Amino acid sequence: MKVTLLGTGGTIPTLRRNLPAIALQRDGDIFLFDCGEGTQVQFLKASLSPGKLFAICLTHLHGDHVTGLPGLLMTIMQQSRERSLFIFGPPGIREFITLFKKSLGFNPSYFLDVREISEGRFYSGPNFFMEAVAVDHKPRTLAYCLQEAPRPGRFHPEKAKELGVPEGPLFGRLQRGETLTLESEKVITPSMVMGSPRKGRKFVYVTDTRPCPQVVAFADDADLLIHEGMFISEMENEAHLKGHSTVGQAAQIAKDARVRKFVITHISSRYRRTDELRKEAHNIFPGAIVGKDLMEILIPLHK
Amino acid sequence: MKVTLLGTGGTIPTLRRNLPAIALQRDGDIFLFDCGEGTQVQFLKASLSPGKLFAICLTHLHGDHVTGLPGLLMTIMQQSRERSLFIFGPPGIREFITLFKKSLGFNPSYFLDVREISEGRFYSGPNFFMEAVAVDHKPRTLAYCLQEAPRPGRFHPEKAKELGVPEGPLFGRLQRGETLTLESEKVITPSMVMGSPRKGRKFVYVTDTRPCPQVVAFADDADLLIHEGMFISEMENEAHLKGHSTVGQAAQIAKDARVRKFVITHISSRYRRTDELRKEAHNIFPGAIVGKDLMEILIPLHK
Q: How many separate domains does chain A show?
């Protein structure tokens, strides 16, 4: 998994921070989280192909999070896309898409599979699923999680040989979870020759919200949590009024959720330098990363 | 007058060419022609303040020409704008704006004076007016002209003195067009002490159209014509099918209209190098300029 921060600003763009958009690459597919104005140009800058988009997950219907959608969908059409494209988001996104399709005379050549979702699991793939949870912002805003299924444990060929399994296709059958009965009538189960299952990776994206307790459970043990931190602590009142989090509040969520990596995004245009944001985050979550446009973050497989 | 090319691409943006947007600065106001996705960031790059916008003129309702509008209008609101803002365009723009205001819950704090216009003069200011003409593209597309009123001729103080006008406030009255009767009962008209009126400047913007004869009259004698030239001549058929012009066709329009400066815009993303475009244009209109993002073009006063 590779995550690319396409836009780490919020509300208004700056020369350094585009509006919200996060791309997650996995197994040849791209999952896009939010689609602020300018996202299609950020795809170009990051050398990502919009043709590889599998799904676009929108947190909420504020302009800064969705105004890049019409242009991106139109550009995808220029690329002769055939396979359908999922768009997930809270209620209202269907109307938004219907209205701009109508007023701009946009008739995509591919199927736009728009799904207004509520909390809980909303998509299950062959070896991953996606979940959403409602957070504390208006209009209704969702946070997203992509969770991979556990991978089978490591296969130990020397143990299999010791138990009398001949090298060859039987190894593969054990690795795929089959129990074998050898000619000697000895029964060999996968657990006899394989390590314990390895955890799947977990990615969580939370933006436009006051700090909220349900996110701690939602992000529990994530490999990567991207959480908004729009202001520093001295602006906590303003953050609260506007339905946002401070960097310190976001870091506390990351700490409580015991995540491995924590990246701050949706940073207010008032902060040209990020020293203070970094310092505030590090006081609570050492190693916290202040997001930058086009930053890439790898999420390695669990061993 | 200063014109800044904010976006010289068409259909899809590239790393070098944003989607269509042209800013014209005049008398402290900015007139914006088209508003493709990313225009607000181009304002930042060009150090232009959206707060100075007087009017936005949209050629037509294709996504690449209007998808920057919601974001720009929202950002203007963040800047506490109070004065109203004109938006001119063909029928359909009111619905487009109404729909995105509704679906994004956007309620501007300033008055959006949206006017769906047809051909002819659509706005008269104190010393300029604006006109539109329909061109050959679908959906209905308008080309725009901003024409300044002539300026009074140069005042010759030595002639006035010769005729017995005393230096002082009477000079100003002559320059403002008043006829004077001196104490000697001599009548002095402004034309006796002033040169002939000086032409006002004329700016014309034409994009998304096949070459069309009405543009020649519309752009006649313009100081600056910005005309689309999406393809080179060998793609004339494709240009025609898509409702666009070749560079050569655009140059012929510029030549026939006897414009002073001619700039090509709305350049297809297929052209990374512009040598060929420049050559084709120069064969017909020597001095033709192939537009580049953030290029600035001055239009000096007529002397």
A: 2
Question: Which pLDDT score, from 0 to 100, does residue B71 have?
Answer: 97
**Where in the sequence numbering do the catalytic residues of B fall?**
64
When the pLDDT of each residue in chain B is averaged and rounded to a whole number, the result is 96
Which tokens in the block code for residue A223? 């490999």
Residue whose C-alpha is closest to residue B144's, from B64, B224, B27, B73: B224
* A123: its two tokens: 């998509």
| pLDDT per residue as tens digits for the range A222-242 | 999 999 999 999 999 999 999
Question: What span, in angstroms and rounded, lies between the C-alpha atoms of B5 and B228?
Answer: 13
Chain A residues within an 8 Å CB radius of B19: 71
Q: Which residues of A are catalytic?
A: 64
Residue A82 has pLDDT above 90, yes or no: no
Question: Is there a contact between B37 and A67 if contact means CB atoms under 8 Å apart?
Answer: yes
* Residues B93, B117 within the same domain: yes
Distance from CA of B13 to the nearest CA of A (A): 7
**What is the Cα–Cα distance from A192 to A179, expressed in whole angstroms?**
10
Nearest by CB to residue A44, choosing from B14, B37, B41, is: B14
- Per residue in A211-222, pLDDT (tens digit) is 999 999 999 999
Summarised one tens digit per residue, pLDDT across range B252-285 is: 999 999 999 999 999 999 999 999 999 999 999 9
ipTM: 0.90
Print the domain residue range for A164: 157-192
Q: Looking at the structure, do residues A87 and A161 belong to the same domain, yes or no?
A: no
In a domain, B303, yes or no: no
Nearest-CB residue to A12 (from B75, B96, B105)? B75
Same domain, A167 and A137: no
What 8-state DSSP symbol labels residue B151? B
